[in-house]
Amino acid sequence: MNPRITLVGNSHVAALRRGWDHIKDGFDVDLQFFAANSTLYGQLELSKDKQFGMHDLKKYHPRHVSFLKDHFGDVTVDLSSSDAVVLVGTGIRAKDFVRNLSRFSIDGIRDIEGLPPMSREAFDSFAPSIYQKGPLPEYWMNWSGPRVYILVPPIPSVHCPIEDKRYKVWAQFGQTAQNNIGFLQHYHDIVRAELATQNVHLISQPWDILSENGLTRAQYHDGAKRLDETLADYADDYHHMNPTYGAKVLRHVLQTVQTDCVPA
Prior knowledge:
five-stranded parallel β-sheet
């Protein structure tokens, strides 16, 4: 029996959903998507029997109700019948990590001449607290089944402008390309260990999607489209990615989940 995998999340689901068309012939999975823009996604609710979505339609604007029905066939999705649930675009405070700690030369992790030094001990003490300031909502934690995963949102494109306050932290980080990927990997390992205590599993993007300076390669950004296909394409946006990104990341996700969920 093919594993049933459900991807729920925000606007970053769009790239994966379109990427699925490019790779679906290579996977024997029952895959379903359920998503909304970040504002609406944050308003959706999870019932005790793991039905996720809109439970009281009076709380929602009619066009939001129509969006879910038109794009996903219903206003809720049954997560209880899945083998795995992947929360797409759930942040792990990576931007805050970069903002606070990329300004230091960190012993054994990111040694940069001219920056204030930070010991490895201090780093390992402070870094977990960054994630802990905005942890995953409790209703996703400690499930006995299905398995719950977080797929992190994309890191902005290498072309993101430093003049735009939305991207300034990332653009500044990319200006000093010295073990930037290793720096991010170390933070992911810290968050992965934190989530594991709550029976949640972190999926990082394939690291070769990033350029040497730690930002996403332009080939994965150019041509990004919205979740709602009736709206115009993104303008001045360097955070949402294209179907090429979606195909590569979704392949990685499915391979990870199948390895975990299907007995050898």
